Protein 1
Amino acid sequence: MIRSSFFFLALCASQLHAQDDLLGLLGEEETGPEYTTASFKATRVVNGLSLENTAHGVLDFRISHRFGYLSAGREQFWGLDQAFIRLGLDYGITDRLMVGLGRSSFQKTVDGFAKYKILRQCDAGCSMPITLSFAAGSSITTLPANQVPWYAEGETDYFTNRMGYYFQVIAGRKFNESFSLQLMPGVVHRNLVASTQERNDVINLGGAGRYKLSKRLAVNAEYYYVFPDQLGPAPGVADGKYRNSLSMGLDIETGGHVFQLHCTNSFAMYERGFITETTGDWANGDISFGFNISRVFTVHTPKKPVE
Amino acid sequence: MKPTNLFILALALAPLALSAQERFATRNGHIAFHSSTPIENIDADNRKVTCVWDATTGAMEFAALIKAFEFEKALMQEHFNENYMESNTYPKATFKGKLSGVTADELHAAGTYVVTVAGDLTIHGVTKAVSLPGKVVVDAAGVVKATSEFIVKPEDYDIKIPGMVRKQIAETIKVTVDLSLDRM
């Protein structure tokens, strides 16, 4: 009899044990889709756009700097005597739509763009494996007419002749915590080009990746391949050839800043410039040291959905 | 059956008889934290905290999804998840323990009870035994509310804060819990 009582006690104990997982009583949690964040540390890989957008209500002030080429030698202090700068402001209108404006000293160009995230990679709650954005932008040089490089002698200085456009698809994936990769097929349209050997529409394919070395340190690389026979002779270059833009860099993140240090063969920091007008040759030591500094300001706090 | 045996049997069955338990739960509890330094104040809110409390046994459990903490600044939220809480590796903060200081019967009448919640708090994959002060309030309409305010040190949970931002993030973080519990 005693034994059976103990049996009951044991039964009761197991009954109590079954209640250990109280939260289990609530059943499965219903969570909305959870989108992947921080595929890249900044909205630019080096020169070109990354998978990341400026968040809703956030203003990003960007200062980008490129020194001259290392190959300029001792006289030019290996390029450090010379510098190109782009000052830019980006703003997140929504979490998916961002716009930006910039002014570069390279060909004294003003550029603007908009970028929209069409697909968003998802960690949980949905099954989207990639992020896909579409970007479109325009650039206008403000150089005096006699200095615009693609103007022939006596070219009529129509405003539209100063303009160029680009359209780009940015598709990529954050494969794991450290590694992200993206492909950027695009076209650069130039309203006016220097010669008949040049195409107005330049089809190109970019590729970029990042690898995180630590929580606050990442290496980036970016390459823009321009399909052959689209660009004409490059003025002031020994073999007269334009080069593909290749950049490698290091992202360092502090609290509100991201510092991007890199080496690139492009001076321009807007698409028309670095995709179609890069003349530097890495093999020749035409490597420019540069940096981007990004400082974000929350200017508008989006209303949280009321529950 | 001998009376003593009957007694043992009754004792053994008692918990079963009580299985019509007084359980309370919520899916949208509120946990907020506040870090204050002379340079910057940081606030975050999570309004999707789940909690189940068995008032009969006192057993209490919490789960808070780290990604559900919302910050005023988007970049802070990203850093919170990426750099500090590593929410992809440790998606949840949990608590499992016991609430003492109020009995299930007392909850049928309006009143305020000072309680203690003791158990295991797991944050960032690190579990610590804690004992936290709290309050259970039953209002005239019979709604049961539970609140608590306590201090958490990131260091205790192996959350590393680099020198660079040391001045912006406090060494002790004030956490407030505010739950409105429904009878299950």
Protein 2
Amino acid sequence: MTTIPDKSSYDLKDVANRSKLFYGNGLPHINPALLQGKLIVVEGSDGSGRSSQIALLRDWLERLGYATLNVGLKRSTLVGPELEEAKQGNVLSPTTLSLFYATDFADQLENKIIPALRSGFIVLADRYIYTLMARDIVRGADPEWIRSVYSIALVPDAVFYLAVSPRILAERNFQKNAMLDYWESGMDIQRSGDMFECFISYQRMIQKEFRAMQALYDFETINGNRSIRTISQELKAKTEFILRPQPLQIQEGAIM
Amino acid sequence: MAFTSTNKELSGRLIAVEGLDGSGKSTQIYLLKRWLELEGYKVFFTEWNSSAIVKNATKKGKKRQLLTPTTFSLIHSTDFADRYERQILPVLHAGYLVLADRYFYTAFARDVVRGCDREWIRKLYSYARSPDVTFFFNVPLDIALSRILDGRPRLKYHEAGMDLGFSSDLYESFKIFQGHIYEEYLRMVDEFSFIKIDATKPPDVQQQGVRNLLQERIDLPRYK
């Protein structure tokens, strides 16, 4: 199964006009070429500034008159609450949890993302399949299997990955929640009881996976160590590029 | 393969039965289980769709008709994974004969009829080990249908394939749906080396055949 679309099959330079694609054979009964809107994904760990950036991007888009929709993990009607519950007690085995997340994702893809894109909305996704895949791979999942599971996903128009050094992430989490999150510290897979140590090493593992995925899934790494305002300006500029057709003299490197 | 390797040699053996509703497969696997138990073998029995954890979500989705072919497929795979990792795999490690009343082939047949990609669905379940022996209870479609429908049972929405829009009549929809499932099963006979059992024969004749075939394929004395 082709999980990564052949880049020569569409014109990379023409991001504003290119039609939607699935990573693999896609979803039954859905023609991605009919989807008019744009799908913009912001990826990053907790504390990377993801939510702030999405809120700013949304304000900006709405001021310009674009209709937007926010989606994120564990927000499906179908299994969102059950998934949240299952995460509280460590009762599900890894494959089960992984497929539970995939169900949550698929429900939102089919019942929220695709209908919104069909109506020409800008869909802002607070994380997408990449976080889900990275988490599973660091837990020992077969990368080929998990990529195949998520071959139902639409290829976004842009993926912004906010890379923040693990130490800064830890500090931001301390400031915000006064403690580190169990799952974001990978406590389920580590031997050390020191949560800070676990957090740092787990975040390094996740970042390593993101770097590995970057080669396969065309996304932009944004230096998230900078100020909210600076990052926001960069994201707006990059988003603008997707929304409006551009002359063709733009360097290929700018979007690769 | 997902988190655990399916290649690892497990001492247990997995025996699955597949076939249409009304093919008599549940009766046959029950008789097989009784025989193995009474002979003193280590037997574990498992059924399709019986896990508690994701039952709520399945129920909610079915009731509110929220499910699409893909989410229907994924939620059943989640349910199966839970049962597989917590029940089936441990007992296979422990050296049991595991009898499965339906296995992932049921999902392959139903989900493909619902429109899922054949390759995707096979890969989705690749974390689970393939059965050592799969008996396919083959019965002509009209016989299976009359066995099920003669009593005019209450058919459930998804069971009748109503989500596919074949017909607005529950019974008509069920017939068309089962017909497509039957075609998918027939495609899989060679692909997965099913052992075909003629399910029009009397139950005791079928059972004798099943027992003989099992003895030929599995070294049963190892499982006492």
